[in-house]
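Good morning C.,

I know you're traveling, so I'll keep this short. The sequence:
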Amino acid sequence: MMKGIHLCFITLLVKLWTFIDAFSLIKFEQRISHVKSEEFQPRQTTRRYSGLNLNDVVNSSSGSKQDNNDIYSRPSLYDLAFGYRDFEQEVDFLTYAHEKYSPSHKEPSSVLELAAGPARHSLTALTGSDSVNYVHATAVDLSSEMKEYALQLIKDEYLEKSTANSRSPLIILNDEEIRDNDRNTFKYLLQDMRSLHSATHMHSSLFDTAWILLGSLQHLNTNQDVITCFKSIHDCLTQDGTLIIELPHPQEAFSMVECTRNTWEVPLELSDNSSAKLSILWGDDTDEFNPVTQVRDFSVRFDLFVDGKISTSLSQQVPTRLFTAQEMHALAQCAGFEIAAMYGALDSDVSIMDYEQELAYRMVCVLRKRGDRAEKEKAFKSTLK
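The tokens, ready to paste straight into the viewer:
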């Protein structure tokens, strides 16, 4: 009798466990479906670009030696693709985050923007509203096309912005030039962010803050590359310096069961009154994801339509690493940083934990130097003498 009761009880437990397991699977599948249908909706931009010259939009910078199908050698298209970003609002947040989490709690006056591309954030820091007080910015990238494009942007857009906002006119420094007393100085260097030259080569003193935005850290696919990069930046920052990194939210790493497709369009008006649009694909549902290396072969495609017909098409596979929050904590510690805060967007009101409310879609990490690293290095070096 008792044996029969035990057997019946065990059978009920097995059925209950099976039901719970099935229910959990259904909820997980619903969550994945929800992620695909809601949280990664194609971006739409309301910004319209008018009076553009088709040759300026299509052509890469002169003298390009890079692959003509490389999106990073077509800076004008790249810049248009990400023109939906609110650079002034984002710079305000970056300034706020530094002031809040830097041990000094002071406003930053110098910034190092890494993997800068067109350098829109650092240029906005120097020429934006009077709510920020940056006096120097250095942009770093590997692309000579991006550098040439950014320097042209200064002449076309930012010189006028700086004077309109009662700021000192921008002063563009060459690679070796350093000015201690002038305000609003800008420098663009072709360097690898894993092996930066000394900070004094870039600026007269160490930087208050450094930024790696638009998911650019994802191009470093190994832990060693990331740690080397962080250590290189660490040596360029003041003791109260911060490093702020923008990455995709970790939910993307855990939804790789079905990769997400992300598309958006940018409406254009050409100087000859032709209608045009730039269509962007940034990640496709056919992209391969390696769960061991956490690297996704990201499909990137730019299609420029003029009067309804494709004028230019670029496509590329970009190996892109996805990071988790725990990894970022560990990698930061390996390079002498600590993570002071994580946000779910470049917005002080959005926590990284707000993903269930569909607010958090990025992982923004605010790193600061660990106070004991400098003393430990000094003590270690003294043992070598």
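Safe travels,
E.
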